[in-house]
Amino acid sequence: MDVVIAKKAIVCIRELMEKNKDFLVELDSMMGDGDLGLTMVGAFRAADEKMKSSEESDIGRFFAGVGMEITKAAPSTMGTLVATGFMRGGRSLMGKSELFPADMTLFFRSFVEGLMDRGKSKPGDKSVIDVIDPAVKAMEKADDDWNALADAGIAAARSGLENSSAMMARHGRAAYYKEKSIGKQDPGGTAGLFIVEGMLKTFKSEKSGI
């Protein structure tokens, strides 16, 4: 699992964001400014277009580079959080030219810790953290196998997003709605799910040859 596969993962995330752009806009319009779909599409288009020609073989530096491109393309709150996640995750993998399942778990653990540090938030605040943190915990319990890791991480991320709907938002524009945010699907968490799915599905399919 090398940088070639990492590049495919960014393409997959980009495609998921593009496919679901209008859905993200709709979700974000309920309690936000409605630009999340455009922000995420712009962020991953820029990262894909810049990094696909990268000759970097260090997979950690590659992911950190993805974060830097997202920072430049999407200087919004969510853009900054996602960029921080990629940079922090990339930093944890620097020096590696090949990834094993445990490395992907480390990437996402560092990713979500970056989100918590930068956003000053925690699980239970109804945010992207409530999607990625459960995914990491499930991945940590999975066998050292790409299929098991991917299946566990994606299932936990989906459950985390569903569970977060019952929470009250405590950060961002949605926090102004307080109790009215309960029962609403979190747009940032939805974007986070696409990141988890894009990464894990790509690495799983490449390893499995499907």
CATH superfamily: DhaL domain
Share in β-strands: under 5%
What is the ordering of alpha helices and beta strands? HHHHHHHHH
- Tell me the domain tally: 1
* CATH topology category name: Serine Threonine Protein Phosphatase 5, Tetratricopeptide repeat
* Amino-to-carboxy terminus distance: 15 Å
Determine and state the CATH class. Mainly Alpha
The number of helical runs is 9
Tally of extended strands? Answer: 0
Walk me through this protein's architecture.
With 210 residues, this protein is mainly alpha-helical. The protein has a single domain, classed as Serine Threonine Protein Phosphatase 5, Tetratricopeptide repeat. The protein contains nine helices and no strands. It has helices at residues 3-19, 21-31, 36-51, 59-73, 77-92, 101-119, 129-141, 146-164, 187-208. The longest helix has 22 residues, at 187-208. The radius of gyration is 16 Å and the shape is globular. The relative contact order is 0.15. The mean pLDDT is 88.
Give the gist of this structure:
The protein has helices spanning 3-19, 21-31, 36-51, 59-73, 77-92, 101-119, 129-141, 146-164, 187-208. With 210 residues, it is mainly alpha-helical.
Please supply descriptive tags for the structure shown above.
single chain; 210 residues; mainly alpha; Serine Threonine Protein Phosphatase 5, Tetratricopeptide repeat; 9 helices; 0% strand
Spell out the blueprint of helices and strands.
Layout: H1 3-19, H2 21-31, H3 36-51, H4 59-73, H5 77-92, H6 101-119, H7 129-141, H8 146-164, H9 187-208
Helix pairs in contact: 1-3, 1-9, 2-3, 2-9, 3-4, 4-5, 5-6, 6-7, 7-8, 7-9, 8-9
